[in-house]
Amino acid sequence: MDPCGKGVFLTGGARGIGRGLMEALLSKGAKVMFCDVRVETGKATEAELQQKFGADNVFFRECDVTDSGFGAVDICVNNAGILDESNWEKTIEVNLTAQIRGSQLALDHMRRDRGGRGGLIINTVSGIVALSVHFCPVYMATKHGMIGFMTSWAKNPKMKDMGVRWRCFCPALTDTDLLKEANDADSGKVEDFNAYQALCSVEGAVMSVDETAQEFLKLFQDQDSDDAIFLVRHNGASGYVRRQLVDSDGVSNIVTVD
Ligand SMILES: NC(=O)c1ccc[n+]([C@@H]2O[C@H](COP(=O)([O-])OP(=O)(O)OC[C@H]3O[C@@H](n4cnc5c(N)ncnc54)[C@H](O)[C@@H]3O)[C@@H](O)[C@H]2O)c1
Ligand SMILES: CCCCC[C@H](O)/C=C/C=C\C=C\C=C\[C@@H](O)[C@@H](O)CCCC(=O)O
Fold first, then answer.
1. Who has the most CB within 10 Å: 9, 130, 204, 256?
2. 229, 240 in Cβ contact below 8 A?
3. 40 C-alpha to center of ligand 1: Å?
């Protein structure tokens, strides 16, 4: 799907990756409505992006994804997310429940077999699903959960008639406030910061929001693919991946699950 001229709804756009994704879509000619719980930051982002891309092309509404729906769109990007192991119920509400609700509302609205005009549902998941991370098990559960939800919908044989495509956008580590807040030793959000640093060194340099947003645009180049999991890689080799079960002795008897 070419984002030019399309209406996009995006959650969690006031800052971070969401803001970067909006700028990337606006630069391709999309119109974006975004929501966030951070009202001042949201208004400031709206003003800056209206200045850059035109007052008619980007709009902000205060909205908490755990208690709201939304209006007409071609592309829905459920991006809002938190990492707060000390408030695990909220983490599940924002990262899993609200993304599922947002996806289902988008599907109801878009499906061609019920009068809609088709569309694209993108949920920001995480490249972290390629790993197991002992200090944020609830965050991991939400991200793995979204992979299961999205890939299952993507396999639905009725999806072609519905005209809707599903994409799990899985960024690598990206330099945002989510990371900075998780790094705050006093926040209690991350119990073992050393493990986080080890993760960074294994995965290489943390990407900038702009780099992640540029990789995001590659999602729009392959509208016919039935694959759903788009993994961002630092070396520019981002692309679609499938999950496999592998015997503990290596790669024999691989069972493909997607
Ligand atoms: N930063 C990374 O390294 C990284 C990597 C992979 C995936 N992700 C995912 O990317 C997404 C964006 O993360 P980010 O790093 O940009 O974080 P961020 O904290 O910078 O931005 C998240 C935005 O979501 C908003 N938000 C949070 N709860 C909300 C709610 N209930 N309703 C509406 N808005 C809400 C926040 O106010 C904020 O503006 C998340 O889903 C995160 O899990 C982040
Ligand atoms: C305190 C930690 C917060 C983490 C938040 C966020 O969701 C984290 C993302 C972290 C890591 C992303 C890793 C991405 C890995 C991929 O780029 C890839 O290297 C995985 C290996 C698979 C492959 O290359 O084929």
1. 9
2. yes
3. 16
